[in-house]
Design brief:
The protein has 223 residues and is an alpha/beta fold. It is 46% helix and 12% strand. The protein is globular, with a radius of gyration of 17 Å. The protein starts with 6 loop residues before the first strand and ends with a helix. The relative contact order is 0.17.
Length: 223
């Protein structure tokens, strides 16, 4: 297709980084040290529900979001985890790996001339640790720590527009319909939904493009 965008931004965890594997492995490993067996799917379901609640309660650094969420999830699943030990999840984050198609797709987009960015619900130090998994640099970085807000709030998008993107043509790509596609749509930002699990869209979450993976996004944009 003719080139329609100058900038492509991404959510990081769940879109570029396989956070489900990272979270699941961290919980199963830490619980096993206490002689507790956890079901990975139950962990992920509980985590998705609980983290959103924790983020909405108040702004707190993401390392604290991870620790509070881990504590609540563990207890909900019958693992009496002390808060002080729940730091295992934040400690594991730097080891969460990129999806197999991430770096090749990012390289294709960079080589095609797109500016690349990350808009993430994360702290700066944690994101810096994650960036070693990528083979490209990013022109734009907006974190929850910088804007003191979590998506689906608008602050990431408004800051990116005001401080980095201006009137350049912009596409935002993300896996989370609720955290990224819905708010970006509301702000009139074209979206690419990386719907790896073939989930239904939410009200307000119909994307400009829907793709199964990042390779598909690179095929679309880097022709």
């Amino acid at each position: 297709m003719p080139r329609q965008y100058d900038v492509v931004t991404f959510d990081c965890y769940g879109t570029l980084i396989d956070w489900e594997t990272g979270i699941g492995d961290a919980f199963v490993r830490a619980a096993s040290e206490d002689g507790v067996t956890l079901d990975r799917d139950e962990v992920l379901r509980a985590y998705a529900e609980t983290e959103e609640v924790v983020e909405h309660e108040q702004y707190r650094p993401y390392v604290d979001v991870l620790t509070e969420t881990a504590t609540r999830v563990a207890r909900a699943l019958g693992w009496p985890l002390a808060y002080e030990r729940a730091t295992f999840l934040a400690s594991s984050l730097p080891e969460w790996c990129a999806f197999p198609d991430t770096n090749a797709a990012l390289e294709r987009l960079r080589d095609a001339g797109y500016k690349l960015g990350i808009l993430s619900n994360i702290d700066d130090v944690l994101l810096a640790a994650t960036r070693r998994h990528f083979t490209v640099d990013f022109d734009i970085i907006v974190t929850a720590q910088q804007v003191r807000s979590y998506k689906p709030g608008y602050a990431h998008f408004l800051t990116a527009r005001q401080q980095h993107i201006g009137d350049q043509r912009w596409l935002h790509a993300a896996q989370s319909n609720v955290h990224d596609i819905v708010p970006a749509n509301a702000l009139g930002i074209p979206t690419a939904w990386i719907n790896r699990h073939a989930r239904p869209a939410l009200p307000g979450g119909t994307p400009t493009y829907e793709l199964r993976d990042l390779a598909g996004l690179a095929d679309l944009l880097a022709q």
